[in-house]
Design a protein that fits this description.
alpha+beta, Alpha-Beta Plaits, five-stranded antiparallel beta sheet, five-stranded mixed beta sheet, 12 strands, elongated, HAMP_dom, EC 2.7.7.65, Nucleotide_cyclase, transmembrane
């Protein structure tokens, strides 16, 4: 009777010791796994939020410089559609509020902090507070303020913690039953499972799997653990795919924001940005640029008579011909409707702009055939020079526009240089 008593006593003692070791190991591994995973997830979330905030600041710069509040509100609303933002605000460099989203809400942010060119990110309870400077040409144009929620991450944290606790309970119960009947045989797979959990927690390699040697409680535990690893592997792969798709979508949206969808050439937003940069560069380097403002003649007649498809075809054809006429360093833009612009860089004199205008007139007047019909299209061109006619972008554009209207009123299918005799 003594030996069986000693045997049962030893079994209970070994079982309790094994359960204690396993419980401590799993708690340590789970804590490390949880801490590492949460820290890395928050770092990635903060990096992603800061990246998107920086991209928003870059996209909002032109609107802030030109005071386009309507476009800025649209950009903030678009950003909020893809990010868990509660509030987004844009401040001018003098700390005055420029726009706020949502528009109906009362701005809760204080004045922007004193920043040079470095963004600021702070985690406050379940929120991220982000300040990013809007960098213009060699100076800070303003600041972007974003307040994002972290409720989704904390909800996931709760589920993850509950899953870890459930896993620890299953390991503890399974190890106790198996250790009571066959302690030595049960200890080896438990040890292997513990080592696997530790390796996964440190390496984050969710492709690892626990070997299933027997179809018992420990085998089921290993199977459940493998299923968890499989789900984590799928989750990791899906997260990577989502990040790749989000980056591709961001790149595509960036391209669409600066390109005319119909003709494929630069749009008005890009034109406004380039024009200001070129004028400033020209004045600094003491060079000369020319702005050609082009408006198609009879385009409304083509649209009304032959339909909008014919009008689109004409716009695409004209855009192709304009690109064939310009030099490599020049840029073509579609400003909207039937209006185009060409920015000539580093020209020697006004004659170079006039020669380009003649080439454009000749090219546009060549027959454009659509459905075996000739489109009666011509164009009127206004030319303005910098710094000869204007020393800022707004005035240069206004003068080129005036010259174009003068060309229309004096016969069409011709060009007029601002300030030159007609």
């Amino acid at each position: 009777m003594g030996q069986p008593e000693r045997y049962h006593s030893l079994a209970r003692q070994l079982t309790l010791q094994n359960l204690l070791i396993i419980a401590v190991s799993l708690l340590i591994a789970g804590s490390l796994s949880f801490s590492l995973f949460w820290t890395m997830m928050m770092q990635r979330l903060e990096s992603s939020s800061l990246l998107h905030a920086t991209q928003l600041a870059s996209q909002i710069e032109v609107m802030l410089v030109f005071g386009d509040r309507s476009a800025a509100v649209g950009e903030l609303s678009y950003h909020a559609d893809y990010r868990p933002a509660n509030e987004i605000g844009v401040y001018q460099a003098n700390a005055d509020l420029f726009v706020w989203w949502p528009e109906t809400a009362v701005p809760s942010a204080q004045q922007p902090p004193t920043l040079d060119v470095l963004p600021s990110l702070k985690r406050n309870n379940r929120e991220l507070i982000i300040w990013v400077p809007v960098i213009g040409k060699d100076r800070v144009e303003g600041f972007v303020y974003i307040r994002e929620q972290l409720d989704q991450e904390y909800a996931w944290l709760t589920r993850f913690l509950a899953g870890q606790l459930m896993l620890i309970v299953l390991v503890f119960v399974g190890a106790g039953i198996w250790s009571w009947h066959a302690n030595r045989r049960a200890f080896r797979p438990l040890k292997a499972l513990t080592e696997l959990a530790t390796e996964v927690s440190h390496s984050r390699n969710f492709k690892l799997r626990a070997p299933i040697r027997q179809h018992d409680d420990i085998g089921r535990l290993s199977s459940h653990f493998n299923e968890l690893l499989k789900r984590l592997e799928f989750w990791q792969r899906d997260m990577h795919q989502q990040l790749v798709e989000q980056q591709a979508h961001s790149d595509a949206m960036q391209a669409l924001a600066h390109c005319d969808e119909l003709t494929g050439i630069n749009n008005r937003l890009t034109f406004n940005k380039h024009l200001g940069q070129e004028v400033n560069y020209t004045l600094t380097q003491q060079q000369k640029i020319a702005l050609l403002f082009i408006d198609l003649d009879n385009f409304k007649f083509v649209n009304d008579t032959f339909g909008h498809n014919a009008g689109d075809f004409v716009l695409q054809t004209v855009a192709e011909r304009l690109q064939e006429c310009v030099r490599q360093q020049d840029e073509c833009y579609r400003l909207g409707g039937d209006e185009f612009a060409i920015l000539m860089r580093s020209i020697p004199d006004a004659l170079a702009a006039e020669q380009l205008a003649k080439r454009i007139l000749q090219s546009v007047q060549e027959p454009i055939h659509y459905l075996q019909q000739v489109m009666p299209i011509g164009c009127s061109i206004g030319i303005a020079l910098c710094p000869e006619n204007a020393d800022n972008a707004a005035l240069l554009l206004e003068q080129a526009d005036q010259a174009m209207y003068q060309a229309k009123h004096t016969g069409r299918n011709r060009f007029v240089r601002y300030g030159a005799p007609v």
